[in-house]
Inverse folding.
């Protein structure tokens, strides 16, 4: 049995262990009917480990507003706004853990792609400041970020102060490709105290763009959208929103061992990684590569694997469950295991599994 | 513990049992990597039991072309073409088992809705001849058929001979609502030997409709579509295709016991029913009703359920697996069971599960 150790996205917490009873999940809908206590899959409280200790301390001191770091020297800088989802009902504390894990995973993913960047959570978003995104490296950054689980969408933004004149200048610059044949809309969101409402700002910016370009306003189905996010003393202007994978950041939902012996297993592991579980891949190395592109950082090459082998690996590595790509019409004979076996494909159609397998294995996003 | 026995959709086969080694599934993609033999979840070979014995014999005698039965007396008749999916790679034999199970389930579902109908498989489709679909009962028939797993879409059709004149008359009658302001397209599929090609027929019918109504032909994005399916000596003309649930017919993929203690459990059971497993629901009766609408026919009311209780029920009822709606962040402490536990929600996002739960519980389709 050979072992491959990639750099780990999120360091495991020393307190991690099965049965540790503080959970991260929002299971409110089911609580009334639960018999046994929920156990969290590994310790989530301090999931980021030592890496983010300093940033957490800092964020506590400053009420969770970390100042944007100065960019790395040289090259054209670009600022990317990263949106995440699935946290509507989570507590402030859980959001913070999630944001820090997401920021750490973004740093690792950009690092693997050779992209220098500063990454920090702020205003309920995560911001990425890279070099050279406008100099041809933009596609690489986008590709890397689209493969970070937990991100729902990204936008390259122009940062200004919250002063209307500055916002106007940025919006005019962003809409300079507009011509009088085109239609456009200005969308504005605002958080904090300002001398203007978001409607007033949108109307003012809309007038200015109309005067400058001759393009007409169409709020229902515009050819072009200019979005303005005003957050306290800052504002962000952007024109494009790129959809990403969604899900939860790797490392925020416990640890699993995933069997990788066929294409279905790849789909199963991918789905569980997307739910945020730190994943140890075990099996045929040709199936590791598609998942490494999505942040898989620990894999074990091995020829054949029984449930007993998988269980041994899981217990050795402190994993809480085993993942396989079995479907309903091909369940293996059950060998008793002391860990739950997760089979995320049992409720999916063959067509959907095959399409997903094709997309993941061909390196699609 | 009270027991509810509904009429069963498909009678269990006497030869059913775990470990019986003829499978129905198409697991070709994974065969090379399989260690233990695939076991089929219950006997699928004779899944229809005695009910369809006669029709199977008949179909063998006639090379699987069962003549359309004469309709029940009285009332306006309507013929519905039922399409099914997920069988592209299956053998002829498996398709036959699937078609017979689907026909039996359609009969039961229409019967429960108080709709008299003849149902028979023919030409790789299933046909339903009902009374009164045009007299106001059409919506009931559609609602009932949209809740039969295995059906991908349905169309109310006009049946004619394969003679061009007959097809033309049916197509003209079906397009009588067309006006000269509208555009239309004629789509034609043909199986068997005829004196015309499908292109020739479509062009001829298109000309006739254009002459009669003044509507113009638009093959790319027509307002109205007239479809013609020519199958040997018959032809079917229709203008609407209603999307249905898809999946596999209940009873073609083994038997499971599903825990029904919360909304997530309902979603999990629904997904496994959609994969074709005959399902025994156990738990809180308020969660049974949404699934009864989808053909759930066996349920056991019980206050609280441990894995051990579920296992006992499963073994008593000859089920091959246990289904629960657990998600990744709320796995129960594992109690050892001798049966696989299926958790189809582990790979799904909270949003998707909640949306699915809302749709199923509100009786949506």
């Amino acid at each position: 049995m050979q072992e491959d150790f990639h750099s780990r996205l999120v360091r495991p917490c020393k307190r991690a262990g099965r049965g540790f009873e503080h959970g991260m999940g929002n299971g409110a809908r089911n609580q009334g009917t639960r018999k046994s206590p929920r156990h969290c899959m590994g310790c989530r409280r301090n999931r980021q480990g030592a890496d983010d200790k300093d940033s957490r301390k800092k964020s506590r001191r400053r009420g969770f507003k970390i100042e944007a770091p100065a960019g790395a020297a040289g090259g054209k800088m670009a600022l990317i706004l990263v949106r995440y989802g699935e946290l509507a009902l989570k507590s402030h504390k859980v959001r913070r853990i999630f944001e820090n894990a997401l920021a750490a995973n973004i740093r690792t993913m950009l690092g693997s792609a050779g992209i220098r960047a500063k990454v920090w959570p702020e205003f309920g978003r995560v911001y990425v400041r890279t070099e050279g995104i406008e100099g041809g490296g933009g596609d690489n950054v986008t590709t890397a970020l689209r493969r970070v689980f937990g991100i729902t969408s990204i936008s390259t933004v122009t940062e200004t102060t919250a002063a209307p004149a500055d916002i106007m200048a940025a919006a005019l610059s962003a809409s300079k490709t507009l011509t009088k044949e085109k239609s456009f809309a200005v969308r504005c969101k605002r958080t904090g105290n300002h001398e203007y409402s978001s409607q007033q700002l949108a109307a003012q910016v809309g007038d200015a763009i109309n005067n400058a370009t001759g393009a007409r306003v169409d709020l229902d189905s515009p050819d072009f959208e200019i979005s303005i996010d005003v957050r306290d003393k800052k504002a962000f202007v952007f024109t494009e929103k790129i959809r990403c994978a969604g899900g939860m950041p790797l490392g925020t939902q416990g640890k699993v061992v995933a069997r990788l012996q066929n294409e279905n297993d790849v789909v199963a592991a991918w789905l569980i990684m997307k739910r945020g579980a730190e994943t140890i891949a075990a099996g045929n190395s040709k199936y590791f590569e598609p998942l490494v592109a999505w942040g898989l950082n620990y894999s074990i090459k091995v020829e054949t694997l029984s449930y007993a082998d998988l269980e041994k690996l899981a217990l050795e590595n402190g994993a809480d469950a085993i993942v396989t790509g079995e479907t309903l019409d091909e369940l293996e004979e059950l060998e008793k295991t002391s860990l739950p076996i997760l089979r995320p494909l049992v409720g999916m159609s063959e067509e959907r599994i095959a399409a997903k397998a094709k997309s993941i294995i061909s390196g699609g996003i």
Notes: The two ends of chain A are 31 Å apart (CA to CA). Chain A has nine helices and 15 strands. Chain A touches chain B through 65 residues (CB under 8 Å).
